[in-house]
């Protein structure tokens, strides 16, 4: 074989091997960081898999914070609450500061592992209120309402009001 062709073949083979190694490393990294979302029913019924149920897999638990389930001892950072999906409730323990929007009957996503029959959360996210509206959208909707003589809604009026904490108008 011609030395030029041999060199080209070697470069092509090295490029393919390098691409395969890069793809394998990327897939491995993504697999380790993947946290699947399951509901309490899927976890308790075993639909999420044995590694989820026995605590060896990290995953996200999604549902609603059950009414009347939130408990925190005075002076403690340990929060105890149940996540409910309408079919099953799963007790959750979280140590740390909960999001401001966290409350009972509100959607929540917690990341962590099972320990026995309790989900031990490492991170808790609370879904924001459905009435939230960015200021720009509220302004545009208010202008459209004025144009079409629609009475303003209390939610749009609250969202359009300037926030005193942003320092607007203090110049």
Overall description:
- The chain is an alpha+beta fold.
- 35% of the residues lie in helices and 25% in strands.
- The protein has helices at residues 3-33, 40-44, 50-53, 135-147, 154-160, and strands at 37-38, 59-65, 71-72, 78-84, 89-95, 107-115, 118-126.
- Helix 4 crosses helix 5.
- The termini are far apart.
- Mean pLDDT is 79; it is low at 165-171.
At a glance:
The protein is an alpha+beta fold and 171 residues long.
How would you describe this structure in keywords?
alpha+beta; OB fold (Dihydrolipoamide Acetyltransferase, E2P); 5-stranded mixed barrel; 35% helix; 25% strand
Q: Please write the CATH class name of the largest domain.
A: Mainly Beta
State the helical fraction.
25-40%
| Overall average residue pLDDT | 79
CATH homologous superfamily grouping of the largest domain? Nucleic acid-binding proteins
How far apart the termini lie comes to 78 Å
Beta-strand portion reads 25-35%
The number of strands is: 7
Number of helices: 5
In spatial order, strands of the major sheet run: 2-4-5-7-6
Poorly predicted runs of 5 or more residues:
165-171
């Amino acid at each position: 074989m011609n030395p030029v062709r041999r060199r080209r073949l070697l470069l092509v083979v090295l490029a393919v091997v390098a691409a395969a190694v890069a793809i394998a490393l990327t897939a491995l990294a993504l697999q380790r960081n993947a946290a699947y979302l399951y509901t309490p029913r899927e976890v308790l019924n075993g639909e999420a898999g044995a590694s989820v149920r026995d605590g060896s897999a990290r995953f996200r638990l999604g549902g609603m914070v059950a009414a009347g389930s939130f408990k925190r001892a005075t002076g403690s950072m340990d929060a105890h609450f149940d996540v409910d999906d309408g079919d099953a409730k799963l007790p959750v323990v979280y140590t740390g500061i909960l999001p401001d929007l966290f409350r009972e009957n509100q959607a929540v996503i917690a990341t962590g592992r099972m320990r026995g029959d309790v989900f031990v959360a490492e991170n808790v996210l609370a879904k924001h209120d459905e009435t939230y509206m960015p200021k720009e959208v509220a302004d545009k909707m208010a202008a459209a309402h004025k144009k079409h003589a629609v009475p303003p809604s209390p939610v749009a009026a609250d969202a359009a009001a300037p926030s005193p904490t942003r320092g607007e108008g203090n110049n």
